[in-house]
Design a protein that fits this description.
Layout: H1 2-18, H2 20-49, E1 60-66, E2 72-73, H3 77-86, E3 90-99, E4 102-104, E5 110-111, E6 114-117, H4 121-125, E7 131-132, E8 147-150, H5 152-159, E9 169-172, E10 175-182, E11 197-200, E12 216-221, H6 227-245, E13 255-260, H7 261-266, H8 270-301, H9 303-311, H10 316-352, H11 367-393, H12 410-445, E14 456-462, H13 471-486, E15 491-497, E16 508-513, E17 522-531, H14 535-539, E18 543-546, E19 560-564, H15 565-572, E20 581-584, E21 592-598, E22 613-617, E23 627-634, H16 642-650, E24 658-663, H17 664-670, H18 673-707, H19 709-717, H20 722-751, H21 767-793, H22 797-803
Parallel strand pairs: 6-11, 8-10, 17-22, 19-21
Antiparallel strand pairs: 1-2, 1-12, 1-13, 3-6, 3-12, 4-5, 4-9, 7-10, 8-11, 9-10, 14-23, 14-24, 15-23, 16-17, 16-20, 18-21, 19-22, 20-21
Helix pairs in contact: 1-10, 2-8, 2-10, 2-11, 3-6, 8-11, 8-12, 8-18, 10-11, 12-18, 12-20, 12-21, 13-16, 18-20, 18-21, 19-22, 20-21
Length: 804
Amino acid sequence: MIETTFAELRYAVRRLRAEPGFTAVAALTVAIGIGATTAIFSAVNPILFETLPYPDAGRIAVIQEIRSDGSHLDGTFGMYRGLSERVSSFDALAVFKPWQPTMTGRERPERLDGQRVSARYFQVLGVPPIIGRSFQSSDDLLNAANVVVLSDGLWRRRFEADPAIVGRQITLEGSGYDVIGVMPPDFENVLAPSAELWAPLQYDMSLGTAWGHHLRTVGRLRPGPGIEQAAREVRTAGRDVLQAYRPETYGPDVEFNVTPLQDEVTRGVKPALHAVLGGVILVLLIACVNVANLLVARGVRRRREFALRAALGAGQGRLARQLFIESLVLAAFGGAIGLAVAAAGVRALVAIAPPGLPRAGAMAVDATAFAFGIGLTTLVGLAFGLVPVLQALHGDPRPDFPDDLRHTPGGHRRIRGTLVVAEVALALVLLAGSGLLLRSLERLFAVPIGFDPSGLLTMQVQVSGQRFDADAEASRFFAQALEAVRRVPGVTEASFTSQLPLSGDLDEYGVHFEATPARPARSYGAFRYAVSPGYVETLRIALRRGRLLDDNDRAGAPPAALVSESLARLRFGEVDPIGHRLRIGPMDGSPYTIVGVVADVRQMSMASSMSDAVYTTAGQWRFADRTMWLVVRARGDAAAVVPAVREAVWSVDKDQPIVRVAMLDDLVAATAAGRRFALVLFEAFALAALALAAAGIFAVLAASVAERTREIGIRSALGATPGRILALVVREGFGLTGLGVAIGLAGAALASQALAALLFDVSPVDPVTYAVVVALLLVVSLVACAVPAWRATQIDPAVTLRAE
């Protein structure tokens, strides 16, 4: 048995070497399918299928606050404290927020990404520092000593892996911090992948900010309780906290939920990844169908060989085993190339992956992906090898031996035709998905965003150091920096803002409107912008009513505010809001008078309609923001003034970091990065599917013309014109295409429902998209029919009849 198998293996290799053209085409087709599938699996596996890299990761959950409209709300420190006292389903609870301190010292100042966390953060994740210790409860008290934990990467990059780092003091924000630990090198912080250092929150519960929505809550469940039990307990405890304290920043419609951390991390990218995974499986199926078609055509040419081997005593089992071995060898060739394609594909995926894609660093053709590729190769070899095996076993090949074997049985033609129909149907599904995503992206970028991003330069400026602890010093720095920037040659407009639209910022406050004769007092959530006068003009946000903020709206003057059109409509309807008063955040501050209404601006994304906003000047805000966005409009290319703008800011203080330099156009485009990522992959899959479908139609028609040479010659001899012969071949090709289109339309209508989460203002069964896709397939089918049809018209009936 073993000897026979090795003999058949050697024979299979010789047969494939004897047909280099067939082998190359088939192996490359297999390589495309296996390579693309393995690459996508390598990207998707660590995100969707692998457990997170923490001990008992299934017990880590996120506590969410959700509005009645389904939108998520960041948590508050007050709610975290209330839940910690009332909930028993968790071993540990922790809250955290982003932190971007500037590190100073002997080297150039560097702004770092980090987190402020409560004491039990690392206990929740289950990963302690590898050097030193984790945070203790005493570290997280107000006015406690400043301590910090470093990542392994930061420890090696800035401190040369100093083994005596624990106990060493470093300077952050102008203050000394004692290093108490270093995290392990393989620690993966999925909650903030870019974080390089951690410090305790050290919250002051007496401040109004204890109820500000700017924290995220995570917990580790006890071994017994499940997610559902924990969720019920959190909902009850959350309602108790609200009844006990009921801060004004909480609305009556807030609910609480508990979600596994794995689900929360993948929530934003899961629809795109599922769609991409489905698309690549369709490509693999098309590749298998294409290779099966090639093998069927090859089997027709080998019928004499099969008849001869059967006559010499080979049984059907022996023939089947030989064909399966040949298919597996062919799949192995393609699979080897495919794994190389997969490695290159993963690198390309990492390069085009949208910002914030979770676990992007874990994308690699690792042992799991390699095993997947080998298993897929075997499965593919068996799959496309099944058709020629069934073809060879259909009936007894021996009676064919003495006959004229130049003619192809009708059953073989039907098999090949069926495979082409399947290719066309699968290709249409991919083309429809690609078309829907493309139209969705076009609609998304056609949405009014409320400002003009063209030619706008943006950069983030942050003040750090003890002298900026005083609000007056921070305000003075930004005012002087703005004046210096406005003097830069080429700069026409410049302004500062506390948060920038479509940059990923989320600074939301409760806005409390005073009662009017027609309406009682009420609170709404809105984005808060502390800006310099001229900001609205710089971004070219339209003024709908009233006036804009100007230099008269300074500290000490009556507080003035602008509201967005949506917020004004929500509160006042058709009533003029000018002159009405509101408070932002805690109720102990002075009320602001509404002096103007401006157009709605998309803050979070172009697909999000949430645009309620309130604008004040930075001088009239209750505290000075330490991080501000500088927005610059210049004559000509704004990117050309970047060095001069940087120097202007540093002329005020050279130690203040400037980061996230970008054109606002690029930030706008980045908000659709997830959809664009799916679109790019779907377009690649669709083009591959279209090419394979066209190749399948061409191969079937070319084989059909070759097999029907005698018939076509006789038709010509009996008076058939070249036009009629051309129509005969084209009709056959269009018949296959039409049947595939009909099946594909039904499949696309079902499959496109999986893309619904990625679509914007486009129906999954958009008729325009489907019409364009069908027209494209028909055109490609016509092109694929052209060469075989032309060859059919060139058949000489005299030569054909003499051959008979």
